[in-house]
TrEMBL record:
Any one Gene Ontology BP term: L-histidine biosynthetic process
Assembly mode: Homodimer.
Protein name stated in the entry: histidinol-phosphate transaminase
Pathway linked to the protein: Amino-acid biosynthesis; L-histidine biosynthesis; L-histidine from 5-phospho-alpha-D-ribose 1-diphosphate: step 7/9
SUPFAM superfamilies cross-referenced by the UniProt entry: PLP-dependent transferases
Superkingdom field: Bacteria
Record flagged with keyword Transferase: yes
Molecular function terms, GO-annotated: histidinol-phosphate transaminase activity; pyridoxal phosphate binding
Originating gene: hisC
Enzyme class, spelled out: transferase
Source organism (scientific name): Pseudoalteromonas citrea
Presence of the UniProt keyword Transferase in the record: yes
Catalysis performed (reactions): L-histidinol phosphate + 2-oxoglutarate = 3-(imidazol-4-yl)-2-oxopropyl phosphate + L-glutamate
CC cofactor: pyridoxal 5'-phosphate
Amino acid sequence: MTNKPAQDTLLPGNIEALTAYSSAKSEKVSGNIWLNANESPYVKDVNIILSDLNRYPDPQPAAVIDAYADYAGVSSEQVIMTRGADEGIDLLVRTYCEPASDNIALFLPTYGMYKVTADTHNVAVNDLSQELLLSGTVEDIIKAVSGSKLVFICNPNNPTGSITPVEKIAQITKALTGKAIVVVDEAYIEFSESNSCALLLKDFDNLVILRTLSKAFALAGLRTGFMLGDQSLLAPIRKVIAPYPVSTVVAQIAEKALSSDAITQMRRQVTILNKAKLTLVRWLEQSPAVNNILSGEGNFVTLQLKDKGCLSFAAQMGLVMRPFNLYGQDNWLRISIGNEQDLKSVKDWLDVISAQV
């Protein structure tokens, strides 16, 4: 009889210490009004052809790459298509960071996958603050990120919505030339297009921009992202990426989403959502149940409740929003911008909890 070792004895020592990213959909909650994942409320109808699924797909479908390059204002050689922006984060850490040696710099609070990815690859995290990024001098920031291999800037930032000016990012990138790669995550940039750093790519070979079709393009279920950067920076990543990361079906849908008409429709929807956000912010400002509002940019609003117990009323109403621990406090909440009826439900909830204060 062979003695089988316990499963946990087969795992590397650091695996047990890892904390998985807690995505909005991984949390076991129920409801019928979903405003917790920054998804678009708009549903896309697509027609696809499934006659060639017996063949492997193009690893980097030229039609999609060309269309996204045209949309972003870069050359096709400066674009890699990924499985969501999350794969882009993983590829950057795997390609450019040495495990147990290098570190990445983050400005907290920010998107949680940067840290999860670093932890997974045994790469240390240099925890800095959004306050430093927004209010500190470039000299202060450069000193703080000294020795970091990758410097992640989420812009607009999730979950605060804050914007780091393009000129400041340019100055940071210039100062880090030859020292570090600046990674600007523009997942929400369509909601604040004037703050895109895409034009900086012509000036810097140590700048990477991450993009996605999950937010403004209303294709979260497609898991499609893009990495934009200098050819020399992307070349090593092309050696590391999976051989067939983009399925035929995903490529077909993404190509249609990047047509001229579809982009026009996307921008029209963004305009509607941005206006709806202003309405939601006004309601929040009028509610005595709300302590603080971080409206910022993006298709969400993050706020601080006077009493997090107010969320129990939301659950009773079928309203699902994203609670957060921010700045050492557990009474923060992020609300995605939904359609008119969704936000009417948020207003009803605000009316209920305001009456309780």
